[in-house]
From TrEMBL:
<dbReference type="InterPro" id="IPR007485">
    <property type="entry name" value="LPS_assembly_LptE"/>
</dbReference>
<keyword id="KW-0472">Membrane</keyword>
<dbReference type="GO" id="GO:0001530">
    <property type="term" value="F:lipopolysaccharide binding"/>
</dbReference>
<protein>
    <submittedName>
        <fullName>LPS-assembly lipoprotein RlpB</fullName>
    </submittedName>
</protein>
<dbReference type="GO" id="GO:0043165">
    <property type="term" value="P:Gram-negative-bacterium-type cell outer membrane assembly"/>
</dbReference>
<keyword id="KW-0449">Lipoprotein</keyword>
<keyword id="KW-0564">Palmitate</keyword>
<dbReference type="Pfam" id="PF04390">
    <property type="entry name" value="LptE"/>
</dbReference>
<keyword id="KW-0732">Signal</keyword>
<keyword id="KW-0998">Cell outer membrane</keyword>
<dbReference type="GO" id="GO:0015920">
    <property type="term" value="P:lipopolysaccharide transport"/>
</dbReference>
<dbReference type="GO" id="GO:1990351">
    <property type="term" value="C:transporter complex"/>
</dbReference>
<dbReference type="GO" id="GO:0019867">
    <property type="term" value="C:outer membrane"/>
</dbReference>
Length: 165
């Protein structure tokens, strides 16, 4: 007869193997077009980051309008910080960050879709490490921007598949 420890171990091991971690789902979605017209309303830093993102996806970014190619207009992102927890001295200890932008995607068939992409993070603050908090804040904003671009990629894939581009 098999011991209960072995059965417990095998059960736990199979749960871990079957569930997986999901990192394979974080890969950028392949987009079904080879070039895109990118327009921004200001926000040079985000425009440069989006340009780099599309280029890394092997998509040529064009600035001149041509009705035969898809167009993406991205409005400046917003960052909102919501205080969550204060300590006894009135110092902020935990906050929630919201990062979002609105975009409009136009297909070569002139179908237009407006949508919002957003992400949220919570972070713990430490008054003894203000320099570390600034570096962590920069890292979190970069991660949030990457998440926004990933969500944008998924949304554009959905829209182009629905529009049969």
């Amino acid at each position: 007869m098999i011991s209960s420890r072995i059965v417990c171990f095998l059960s736990a091991f199979s749960v871990v193997i079957i569930s997986g971690c999901g990192f394979h789902l974080k890969k950028p979605q392949p987009l079904p077009f080879k070039e895109i017209q990118l327009q921004m309303s200001g926000c040079t830093q985000i425009q440069n980051a989006l340009h780099s993102y599309f280029t890394s996806q092997k998509i040529r970014v064009k600035s001149k309008y041509r009705a035969s190619r898809p167009a993406l207009t991205v409005h400046c992102p917003t960052l909102e910080i919501q205080p969550l927890v204060y300590d006894g001295e009135g110092q902020l200890r935990r906050q929630r960050m919201f990062y979002a932008f609105t975009a409009e995607f136009t297909t070569p068939q002139s179908q237009s879709y407006t949508f919002e992409i957003k992400t949220t993070r919570e972070r713990q603050l430490n008054s003894q490490q203000s320099l570390g908090d600034a570096a962590e804040n920069t890292m979190i904003l970069k991660e949030m921007q990457e998440e926004l671009f990933h969500q944008l990629s998924v949304k554009l894939s959905q829209l182009t598949n629905n529009a049969n581009i």
